[in-house]
């Protein structure tokens, strides 16, 4: 089986050397990532049907009282008292708050291991990029004073999953010239109603832009 090489350039701090001794790798939380655009997401309000707004609010009430009929009555009572315009503003405001609280929680729970993928196989070139890119060494390896570890990607992932009893989600980073990822209010509302985890998937996807 061919080795799938990936690389980790390090500045050579004591904890990097300690990781080599203990055969471990470091996963950063989102706040520790060195690019301010990593994990950045824009939230956008858009038109959502009254029916979906009511369904989402019903699900939220249902979590509190575990009574679906009572939850529906509470939503209808609130809609009648507020009227369509105020009810809509109320839902938009709370969906935005719900999303940003969820995003903070998501960022606390998610950790990232950034690796550089070889642009060629080792059969084609024993010194492929990023090893041959001096800018990478200058930036990530403490001005050429650090070092670089080469991993077999397949073995690394299997090892991490087995030792920690987890499942990693791995994606390639996409560099885009257009706007950063946008999550719309309809996505969050659908997630509340159908519990399809679409919001989480979009957040994870955004970490790779």
Main attributes?
mainly alpha; single chain; 209 residues; 11% strand; two-stranded antiparallel sheet; elongated; 50% helix; 7 helices; three-stranded antiparallel beta sheet
Structure summary:
The protein is mainly alpha-helical.
3D architecture notes:
By secondary structure, the chain is mainly alpha-helical. It has one domain. It is built from 7 helices and 7 strands. It has helices at 14-22, 50-65, 68-109, 134-140, 153-164, 185-194, 198-206; strands at residues 5-10, 28-29, 42-44, 111-112, 116-117, 147-152, 182-184. Strands 5-1-6 form a 3-stranded antiparallel beta sheet. It has a two-stranded antiparallel sheet with strand order 2-4. The chain is elongated and about 70 Å long. It starts with a strand and ends with a helix.
Task: Describe the protein's topology.
Layout: E1 5-10, H1 14-22, E2 28-29, E3 42-44, H2 50-65, H3 68-109, E4 111-112, E5 116-117, H4 134-140, E6 147-152, H5 153-164, E7 182-184, H6 185-194, H7 198-206
Parallel strand pairs: 3-7
Antiparallel strand pairs: 1-5, 1-6, 2-4
Helix pairs in contact: 2-3, 2-6
Main sheet attributes: strand count, strand direction, barrel closure:
3 strands, antiparallel
Total beta strands: 7
* Unreliable residue stretches: none
Q: How widely separated are the two ends?
A: 31 Å
Residues in helix, %: 40-55%
Number of helices: 7
Strands of the widest sheet, in order across it, are 5-1-6
Give the tally of structural domains.
1
Shape: elongated
How large is the share of residues in beta strands? 5-15%
The secondary-structure element order is EHEEHHEEHEHEHH
Give the class from helix and strand content and strand pairing: mainly alpha
Overall mean confidence score, pLDDT: 90
Instruction: Using the CA coordinates, give the radius of gyration.
Output: 23 Å
């Amino acid at each position: 089986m061919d080795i799938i090489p990936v690389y980790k350039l390090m500045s050579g701090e004591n904890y990097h050397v300690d990781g080599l001794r203990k055969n471990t790798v470091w996963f950063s939380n989102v706040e520790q990532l060195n690019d301010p655009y990593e994990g950045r997401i824009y939230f956008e309000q858009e038109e959502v049907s009254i029916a979906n707004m009511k369904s989402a609010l019903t699900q939220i009430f249902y979590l509190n009282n575990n009574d679906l009929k009572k939850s529906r009555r509470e939503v209808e009572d609130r809609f009648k008292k507020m009227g369509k315009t105020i009810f809509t503003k109320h839902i938009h405001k709370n969906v935005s708050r719900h999303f940003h609280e969820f995003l903070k929680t998501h960022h606390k729970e998610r950790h990232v291991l950034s690796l550089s993928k070889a642009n060629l196989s080792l059969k084609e070139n024993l010194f492929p990029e990023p090893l041959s890119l001096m800018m990478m060494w200058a930036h990530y390896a403490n001005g050429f004073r650090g070092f670089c570890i080469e991993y077999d990607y397949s073995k690394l992932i299997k090892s991490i999953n087995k030792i920690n009893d987890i499942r990693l989600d791995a994606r390639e980073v996409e560099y885009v010239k257009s706007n950063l990822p946008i999550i719309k209010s309809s996505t969050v509302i659908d997630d509340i109603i159908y519990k399809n985890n679409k919001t989480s998937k979009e957040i994870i996807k955004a970490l790779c832009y």
